[in-house]
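Posted in: Structural Biology > Protein-Ligand Complexes

Title: Requesting predicted complex, flavin mononucleotide in pocket

I'd be grateful if someone could produce the 3D structure tokens for the following input. Sequence and ligand are given below.
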Amino acid sequence: MKQKKIAVLVGSLRKASLNLKVAKQLMRLAPENLELEIVNIGDLPLYNEDLEANTPTSWVDFRNTIREADGVLFVTPEYNRTTSPAIKNAIDVASRPWGKNVWNEKPGAVISVSMSALGGFGANHSIRQSAACLNVPMMQQPEAYIGNAHTLFDENDNLTSAETESFLKNFMVAYEKWVNRLTVA
Ligand SMILES: Cc1cc2nc3c(=O)[nH]c(=O)nc-3n(C[C@H](O)[C@H](O)[C@H](O)COP(=O)(O)O)c2cc1C
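-- Reply #1 --
Done. Output follows.
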């Protein structure tokens, strides 16, 4: 079976991002059949339809990357009870121009990561809301709200919680099944 390419979007741009740390753990724990790659979304100009007249190279590259992916995995922080502007901008960029939504039918999953005990529930579901509009079939279960994320890593960014490790591993096993169900072998 060929490896499935999964585009990973990390919604926080800061170097010490907890979302980035979790995304790296997902890459480590993913089944071999999935090839995860973090896609840079930090240099995409803010969506402005006027720019389509001379489409920014970074938009073209990003759209191509999503088009070529077999699935999309969103790792999102919560900003004021919704997703971050970086991830929302990336979603919007690859949804346009009208009629060329490259997210269409990509099997998706979302994991929210927050310092708060609530685990970014609002952000998680704001991704699901956009996914419905973009025809991205989202894995429903297991839901993944990673709370108190600042307590989960040591000073070398190693995951210290065996419980979280097991949860993330199971999440990726379920996502592999979801991708396999919705894509050709
Ligand atoms: C503008 C802003 C708004 C935030 N709003 C929320 C929020 O609504 N809920 C929450 O759990 N955390 C909120 N936070 C805290 C983030 O969850 C926290 O900064 C987290 O570490 C961000 O993810 P990162 O470590 O990957 O950058 C907010 C942070 C910022 C910068």
